[in-house]
Structure formats: structure tokens, C-alpha cells
Amino acid sequence: MAPGTRSDVFDVRDYDLAATLTSGQAFRWRWDGAAWIGIVAGKWVGLRQTPTGIAATIAAGESSPQWLMDYLQVRVNLDQVVATFPDDEPMRRAVAACRGLRLLQQDPWECLASFILSSTKQIVQIRQIVTLLCERFGDEIAAPQGHPRAFSFPDPERLAGANETELRACKMGFRAPYLLEAARRVADARLDLEKLQTLASDQLQVLTSRTGGRRSAASLTEAPVDEARAMLMQLPGVGRKIADCVLLFAYGFQSAFPIDVWVENALQTLYFPKRRASRKRLRHFSETHFGPNAGFAQQYLFHYMRTVFGRETGKG
DNA sequence: AACCAGGACACAA
DNA sequence: TTGTGTCATGGT
Q: What are the CA-CA distances from residue A264 to residues A97, A272, A279, A302 (Å)?
């Protein structure tokens, strides 16, 4: 173990670290030959798979890394989640191919900003843009000896003070004004990311109680997830897909079902192979077919299409 | 070397 | 409602 670090082991089964960290939900993890290196909650983190779970290396002096366990969602029982998936051939194949694939719970601002930068970009390019952004606008973080310099994800206040030209220099192109405006609105509280957190809690209340929790009369007709999505979509450059990514990957709304080109292709070819289904039909299908953990199922379809299906059919 | 990428948006029809 | 062009950039 490198000096100045401490090590923790999380006992968890059915956790495929590599698949989870490279499945297009987070964009800062890299494999250095011995471990997965990333930044969580502004702290340097090294992760590697062990026979009984996950070994984590963090800076010495950190308290018990509950923040890391929350991020990794190690207490989620994957068997219970998968058991709620529909019992059909496509889902069985996806689950068999991606066993151990998990959902993370990311920082909302980093997740929102990253997915604003994701539109019409390949994952490798998103990673490149985010890396540049962090190097130029983030704060340097203490990394263990022998490791490359590490940088935090720049907070909204920092980016709100940047200009569009500086942002475009990070190769984000037409997404620069979108990111800038998002940063400004979060920085001056026109968009309250904490409020979305309370809506996520409200959504859990709705699902676990019959009374609808503590929803106010004014929002009785609208589910918390819909209210949260509408708030995100107020941002320029944030449509249904990006909003759903943030709802699912940062706030844990399990009904959020991002439909990008891959997932649309998955739904179309796996579930409607005969004739072409309309977007509206696919959207309705996604909302009715995949159960209470639809977003989780979506991640299996996405990763399955990207990693396995193309090779199976030979036309990837 | 065309084609496409975890899209959004304005504008047709 | 669904289709088309535009936006910027780099990988395959």
C-alpha cells in the first residue's frame, strides 16, 4: 500500500467493477494497470476487484468511507433487483451477458454537467472532454505518491465564472453555452439541485407507502419524478434523455429510462423485430414493461448492446 | 474517407 | 406527432 493511504474492503457479491465503471454512466474512471483510479466526492480513489468484493484505497485520515459505499451502492442486493426484471428472452440474455453490472449514485452536478457534454459524442470523447475540463478548471487533489496529478470536477461557481471560449477549448463545441448556462443557474440557485434530492425522497415515499408520503396538494397530480424531470429540462441543452440520465445516475429515480441511440436500437431490434415501432410506442413500452427497476434494466440493455450484441450478430 | 456518436432545438409537413 | 437540418469534434 502506498504511503499516506488507507485501505478498506467492501464485502459485496455480484459486482462487476470493470463493467460498472466503463458502462457510460460515469466518465472519469481509468485503469492504471493495477486498479481503477477515480475521483469521488472530491477525493482520490483506487478500486480493485477481490474474490469477496471491492478493495478501496483512499487517502489516509479519511473517516470511514460511507461516501464511497454510497457512490458504489454496495448495499444494493443485485439479485433482488434483477428479480424484478421482466422474464423475457432479451432481458435474460442481457442479464446473462452483463452479470454484476451495477448503477452508481453520482454527484448531481458532475452528472448533469457530464451528460450535457455527452450529446452526440462517443464515450471515449466524453471522457476526453471531461478530463480537459477538470484539468483546466478543477482543483488539484492529493494523489498517492507515484500516481499522476488528480483534479476535482469543477464546481458550478467556478464554471459560471468561465467564458464560452475557454470552455470550447476543452473540445466541447456547441455544448459550451449549454454547460455555461447550467453552471450559472446552479450557482445562483435558479436551479436547486438539492430540491431534486428531496423529490427523490418523496418518490421513495410514494413507492413504499399508500398515502403518497408528504406530497403537497399542489403536486398531487404530478409524480415527484416528473416534477424533477421538468426542472432539469428547463435548462437549455437538456432534453428528456439527458434529464433521465441525471435522474437515474445521480438521484436514483428507478423509473427514469434514458433512451439514447443504443437503447432505442435495443428496444426496436430485441422487442419489435418484425416491424418498426414509433418513438412514442417505444417510450410507452419502456414505461410499462420493465417494472419498478426499469432504469436498471435499461443499463443492462445499453451495456449488452454495446459490448455483446454487436459481436453476436456480426453487424456491430 | 464516409459515417456515427448515451441529443437538443427550431422548423417543416 | 414525426422527419430534417444544424450545431462541433474526433474515433472507427
A: 19, 11, 8, 9
pTM reported for the whole predicted model:
0.96
Q: Is the pLDDT of residue A161 over 60?
A: yes
pLDDT digits (tens, 9 = 90+) for A252-291: 999 999 999 999 999 999 999 999 999 999 999 999 999 9
Strands (E), chain A: 5-11, 30-31, 36-40, 43-50, 53-59, 140-141, 150-151
Residue A181 CA to its chain's centroid (Å): 21
CB A49 within 8 A of CB A14: no
Looking at residue A316, its pLDDT comes to 33
Nucleotide nearest to A119 (CA to C1'): B7
Residue range A156-162: mean pLDDT, rounded? 98
Which positions in strand C are less than 7 Å from the protein's CB atoms?
1-3, 7-12
Amino acid residing at A189? A
Nucleotides on chain B within 7 angstroms of protein Cβ: 4-9
